[in-house]
Amino acid sequence: QVQLVESGGGSVQAGDSLRLSCTASRRTFDIDSMAWFRQFAGKEREFVAAIDWTSNVRYEESLKGRYNISRDNVKNTIWLQIHSLKPEDTAVYYCAAGRSLRMQPGDYKYWGQGIQVTVSS
Description:
Layout: E1 4-7, E2 10-13, E3 18-24, E4 33-39, E5 45-52, E6 57-59, E7 67-72, E8 77-82, E9 91-98, E10 110-111, E11 115-120
């Protein structure tokens, strides 16, 4: 079993930046990438960004300019830096671990509990 622990969420003002973090308890043979998803109230989870352990990245195209994913392999940690936050960024953000920079929630085996990000105008 792999545990993913997210932190860094909260309430911020529009225009601010926010940095979310996710730390995995361990690495396994079936994990070579980690990802961020977000879920708006009443909707399904949506892909945000993914990164593998050689620093290949994949972004949802519409978020490419304001969202940045990064990693620290020594700490088994990934971050999501969000710039110029907008009210429409308000969602629960989830960390996931799996393989091959997948973009579908069903392709990920391990998930964090999710953290709330709320952006006020």
